[in-house]
Amino acid sequence: MPINFKIRPEYKTIEKIDVLPVEFSQLENGVPVSVIRAGSQDVTKIDIEYPAGAVHAPFPLIASTTANLLQEGTAQKTSQQISEIIDFHGAYIHTQTAHHNTVVSLLCLTSHLPQMLELVHEIITLPTFPQHEFDIYLRKRYEEFAIEGEKVKTIASRLFSETIFGADHPYGRQLRHEHFDQIDLNRIKTFHEKYYKPELAKIYVAGQPGDNIIDLLNRFWGEKTDVPKMNYPSIPAPSPSPEKERIIKKENAMQSAIRIGRPLFNNHHSDFIPLQVLNTILGGHFGSRLMTSLREEKGLTYGISSFIMPLKYSGAWIISSEVTGSKREEAIETVFDEFRKLQNELISEKELTMVKNYMMGELLRNFDGPFSTADIYRNLKEYNLDFSFYRHMVNYLRDVTAFHIRELAQKYLNPEEFWVIVAGV
């Protein structure tokens, strides 16, 4: 039967998000384990999280270097042997360092979990941090740092964080040339010994791990050790620069990188979810106000985005774009014009409905499958939240009105409360 393309496909409004159930357990030493069982393939993803983030180190570079060198050799295996084992089993091991934690991730066939968990445990607990591998890594990292430091978008981003939070604030301090001279293997080994204790781990499992997954994890991470009480560094309130506009000239730059933003709160605040809607309208999707105005109507940029970045003890609202230097002032003023329109004019029902549907669709996409759901859950747990956070978001999306959006804009989109950072011409 031929398809009649004149008939639109039927659609319906999304009323709720169904999330996969989470099984909670503990290992023999008290390490928490969260398991999401789902998927049609016998594949498992395991994230092992340690409180080994950048804010715990004396200066930038230590935490990420420690994590990235874990696979470069152990007391029993060379880096080449580790790579060969991973390749032979078709597995994937990855480390990622954030402000407050480092996550070691394993993805493999469920049938290979015993061998791969043994390897991951060895990598985490018995790294030797060979001097040769350390030197190679540091040289490569410095080259990347130097190349990135020439880009106006990198200069603007680094200066923005420093300006919003304070140069000495854990969220604002930046990697500098002198840090490459200060770091050494003793600092790496001391950091590893302190923060990679088995009992400090949190484990997140997703996929089809089998019925014996807790026994298997106990074999490697259930060890009881004498871990002293940890005193993690306190995070002070941000201390933004009194300069509301900071411009860095860059010779031979083709464009100006612009960052416009302000300090904010994290996702525990009652206005966090409402601001997600306002931000999406402003610059959070391709058809947003800022994209329409600066790209489509005025041709000032190829792209501009706005996003809210929650942090464990703070947050920031950031608008990011690159424009021709001669159009810099016009671009900044156009952004603030969009602020004022949202403060003074009611959004149309058509636009608001479109944004609601877009956000609901993105939520559905983000919860598609056990691996992405587990990632969301792990991020929520960092803030002591659970999936009810997204149920509140769905409820707000269903009920929000144009009047709510205007009230939020009047409260949070005052141009004088935003900092402007420019790098380039």
Automatic annotation (TrEMBL):
Residues 183-357 form the Peptidase M16 C-terminal domain. Residues 68-144 form the Peptidase M16 N-terminal domain. One of its GO terms (molecular function) is metal ion binding. InterPro entries: Metalloenz_LuxS/M16 (IPR011249), MPP/UQCRC_Complex (IPR050361), Pept_M16_N (IPR011765), Peptidase_M16_C (IPR007863). It comes from the Bacteria. PANTHER family: METALLOPROTEASE (PTHR11851), PROCESSING PROTEASE (PTHR11851:SF224). This is Predicted Zn-dependent peptidase. It comes from Thermophagus xiamenensis. The lineage of its organism: Bacteria, Pseudomonadati, Bacteroidota, Bacteroidia, Marinilabiliales.
